[in-house]
């Protein structure tokens, strides 16, 4: 089978796509893949490094002043022509879009050429690219009930995020071994995305000082660019507070921690629910359409997490919320059970079966 995968702009689009492609390779080593993305964003570096064939489209989002939008619209029309050339050369059996503006070009071109198409929506609020493609594609895969309700029912399936399968099937280490924590100590991991969050570091510094004598260890990932600043803000802390710039093996840390405090990006929530990790979510208010808050609310409505909005966050409130969960075994268990029920550990398998069905059809 020959598959074109398009995922543009951010890791939230790219890493679920890579997870699905890795799974398909395991099931059918003869499958051939071509990634289509931007010429200058994350995917243009990551995908070739992983050994996958890659084509970049010179496209921009529809943002800026009227003149800039007009220029970007011209680039989009030009990218449609380039996409049709790519399709003619590669001859895919199916084209799958994971969001980001390059997906609009290649998926729309495939639809016009009557090639099978599928899109994947990672968030509860539908992204602009997928909104454009709703009526053009053969099948839609989503991760949240709210998104399911917004898409055409006859061609939409709630199958989850491929990253859920990746962490579920991964050989995991124990957080106690990774950070040299006594096995009888509970662990709270706090991470505000791979880059960290300058906007909440002040509250986090205050919270960490208040948790020095707590009956649990705390791991706080600052993001590489904020590490030195955070260490200076906090000053000396006792050994139960572990401040690190980055967590290399996030699935292992999530799986063996007693509580996670995090943003509410699609990949993070796929991992949390697949692993059944109790969580307090602090959705980023700086993302398009405030989609992280909608993601978090969907979990909250199912009893799978607690949520604190960033505007309401301070050190005292965060410590209180953490202590309430860490001191209540029944609450921890309830959060874990509810999160696990929302998890989609078989997302890759189920999406692959839909791909096979579409191609055979």
Automatic annotation (TrEMBL):
Instruction: Enumerate the UniProt keywords alphabetically.
Output: Cell cycle, Cell division, Cell membrane, Cell shape, Cell wall biogenesis/degradation, Glycosyltransferase, Membrane, Peptidoglycan synthesis, Transferase
Give me the residues that bind UDP-N-acetyl-alpha-D-glucosamine, please: 10-12, 123, 194, 247, 292
The biological pathway it contributes to is: Cell wall biogenesis; peptidoglycan biosynthesis
- Is-annotated flag, keyword Nucleotidyltransferase? no
Q: Which CDD domains does its entry note?
A: GT28_MurG
* Span of the signal peptide: none
Q: List the GO biological process terms.
A: carbohydrate metabolic process; cell division; cell wall organization; peptidoglycan biosynthetic process; regulation of cell shape
Q: Which SUPFAM superfamilies match?
A: UDP-Glycosyltransferase/glycogen phosphorylase
If you read the UniProt record, what top EC class would you report for this enzyme, in one word?
Answer: transferase
Which InterPro entries does the record cross-reference, listed alphabetically? GlcNAc_MurG (IPR006009), Glyco_trans_28_C (IPR007235), GlycoTrans_28_N (IPR004276)
- Domain Glycosyltransferase family 28 N-terminal span(s) in chain numbering: 3-140
| Compartmental location | Cell membrane
Q: Which domain of life is it from?
A: Bacteria
Topologically, how does it sit relative to the membrane? Peripheral membrane protein
Give Gene Ontology CC terms: plasma membrane
What is its biological role? Answer: Cell wall formation. Catalyzes the transfer of a GlcNAc subunit on undecaprenyl-pyrophosphoryl-MurNAc-pentapeptide (lipid intermediate I) to form undecaprenyl-pyrophosphoryl-MurNAc-(pentapeptide)GlcNAc (lipid intermediate II).
Matches recorded under HAMAP family: MurG
Q: What is this protein called?
A: UDP-N-acetylglucosamine--N-acetylmuramyl-(pentapeptide) pyrophosphoryl-undecaprenol N-acetylglucosamine transferase
Gene (name only): murG
């Amino acid at each position: 089978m020959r598959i074109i995968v398009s995922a543009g702009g951010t890791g939230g689009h790219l890493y679920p796509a890579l997870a699905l492609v890795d799974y398909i390779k395991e099931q059918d080593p003869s499958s051939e893949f071509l990634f289509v993305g931007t010429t200058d964003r994350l995917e243009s570096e990551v995908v070739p490094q992983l050994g996958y064939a890659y084509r970049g489209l010179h496209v921009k989002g529809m943002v800026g002043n009227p003149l800039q939008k007009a220029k970007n619209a011209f680039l989009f029309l030009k990218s449609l022509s380039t996409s049709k050339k790519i399709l003619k050369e590669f001859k895919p059996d199916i084209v799958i879009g994971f969001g980001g503006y390059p997906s609009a070009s290649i998926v729309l071109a495939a639809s016009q050429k009557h090639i099978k198409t599928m899109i994947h929506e990672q968030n509860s609020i539908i992204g602009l690219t997928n909104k454009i493609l709703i009526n053009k594609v053969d099948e839609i895969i989503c991760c949240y009930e709210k998104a399911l309700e917004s898409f055409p029912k006859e061609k939409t399936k709630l199958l989850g995020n491929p990253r859920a399968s990746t962490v579920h099937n991964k050989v995991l280490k124990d957080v106690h071994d990774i950070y040299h924590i006594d096995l009888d100590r509970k662990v709270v991991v706090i991470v505000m995305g791979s880059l960290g969050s300058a906007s909440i570091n002040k509250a986090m510094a205050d919270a960490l000082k208040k948790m020095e004598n707590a009956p649990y260890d705390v791991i706080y990932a600052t993001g590489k660019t904020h590490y030195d600043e955070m260490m200076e803000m906090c000053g000396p802390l006792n050994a139960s507070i572990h401040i690190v710039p980055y967590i290399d093996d996030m699935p292992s840390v999530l799986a063996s921690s007693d509580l996670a405090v995090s943003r509410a990006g699609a990949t993070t929530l796929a991992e949390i629910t697949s692993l059944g990790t109790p969580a307090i979510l602090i959705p980023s208010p700086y993302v398009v359409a405030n989609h992280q808050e909608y993601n978090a609310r969907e979990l909250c409505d199912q009893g799978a997490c607690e949520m604190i909005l960033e505007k309401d966050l301070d050190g005292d409130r965060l410590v209180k919320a953490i202590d309430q969960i860490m001191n209540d075994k029944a609450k921890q268990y309830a959060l874990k059970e509810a999160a696990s029920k929302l998890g989609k550990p078989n997302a890759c398998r189920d999406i692959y079966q839909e791909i096979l069905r579409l191609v055979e059809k």
